[in-house]
Amino acid sequence: MRKLYIAGNWKMNMVPSQAVEFAKSLKEQVKDAKVRVMVAPTFVCLPDVARVLKGSNITVAAQNMNDHESGAYTGEISPDMLKDIGVNAVILGHSERRLYYGETNSFINSKVLLALKKGMEVVLCVGETLEEREGGKLEAVLKEQVNVGLEGVDASQMDKITIAYEPVWAIGTGRTASPDDADSAHAYIRSLLAKKYSADVAEKAIIQYGGSVKPDNVKELMAKENIDGALVGGASLTLDKFLPIVHCI
Ligand code: PEP
């Protein structure tokens, strides 16, 4: 039985003082949650939020990291820097990073491998654009993103990987994939994992859905067989929206 995993991606929102207050309230109000919970603040909020949430049931993740261990990469953040402040998880391959910063599947793969080498947990985001979906390329796009994104990742490391299926056209747009459409994309991703690894790895894999998840659609989405949680953007920024999502079961 897979445990639901609800993650809040705060994107470029909240200054550190706001993030700390938010994290303190969240910690109190999700301590009895039946799901696993993650938040991903911006880099400058991470040290304070990690301190506030230390020892809680909330995982703290970075929204990105560099693909090198250290060196002359001005403005970048390494996995060791994250680990040193108590951050052991990272979201990689978010569609905004692919779209605005040109991140390719193989570049994302190099970060996945480095994060795993450092013992970090990874949420690997995949998902098609509207054009790709309407052009009948959904499966081809997912296949490439999953297979290249996980190249060199061993079956024994797959318990450190969560896949987030996020159709790009549903992110921040208010449009949600129908629960049936999302479930069938998740089932396809699971079949890719079965083929690449084994039925057992596929069965155990946590596949989150992301794209305009809200309190009023979360239950229907989470009821689907292949949907094991949510990666939430906009609705993770206020407690009145995020708490009902976390407490959806
Ligand atoms: C996201 O940022 O991953 C996301 C799904 O955003 P939103 O929930 O705002 O669509």
Which SSEs are present, and which pair or pack?
Elements: E1 5-9, H1 16-29, E2 36-40, H2 46-53, E3 58-62, H3 79-84, E4 89-92, H4 95-101, H5 105-117, E5 121-126, H6 130-134, H7 138-149, E6 161-165, H8 179-196, H9 199-204, E7 206-210, H10 218-222, E8 229-232, H11 239-246
Helix pairs in contact: 1-2, 5-7, 7-8
The structure holds phosphoenolpyruvate.
Phosphoenolpyruvate binds next to strand 8.
Briefly summarize what is shown.
Helices cover 41% and strands 16% of the residues. The protein is of the alpha/beta class and 249 residues long.
* Strand residue content: 15-25%
Classified by CATH, the class is: Alpha Beta
Measured as a percent range, the helix fraction is: 40-55%
Bound molecules: phosphoenolpyruvate
Q: Can you identify the CATH superfamily?
A: Aldolase class I
Order of helices and strands: EHEHEHEHHEHHEHHEHEH
End-to-end CA span: 15 Å
Q: In CATH terms, what is the architecture?
A: Alpha-Beta Barrel
Spans of at least 5 consecutive residues with low confidence: none
Number of domains: 1
Shape: globular
Q: Per CATH, what is the topology?
A: TIM Barrel
User: Can you list the strand order of the major beta sheet?
Assistant: 1-2-3-4-5-6-7-8
Mean pLDDT over all positions: 97
Sheet of most strands: 8 strands, parallel, barrel
Structural class: alpha/beta
Q: Give the number of helices.
A: 11
Summarize the structure in words.
It is a single chain. The chain has 249 residues and is α/β, with parallel strands linked by helices. The protein has a single domain (5-246), classed as Aldolase class I (TIM Barrel, Alpha-Beta Barrel). The protein contains eleven helices and eight strands. It has an eight-stranded parallel barrel, surrounded by five helices. Strand 7, helix 10 (218-222) and strand 8 form a beta-alpha-beta unit. Helix 1 (16-29) runs parallel beside helix 2, helix 5 runs parallel beside helix 7 (138-149) and helix 7 crosses helix 8. The two termini are 15 Å apart. Bound molecules: phosphoenolpyruvate. Phosphoenolpyruvate binds at residues 9, 11, 166, 171-172, 210-213, 231-235.
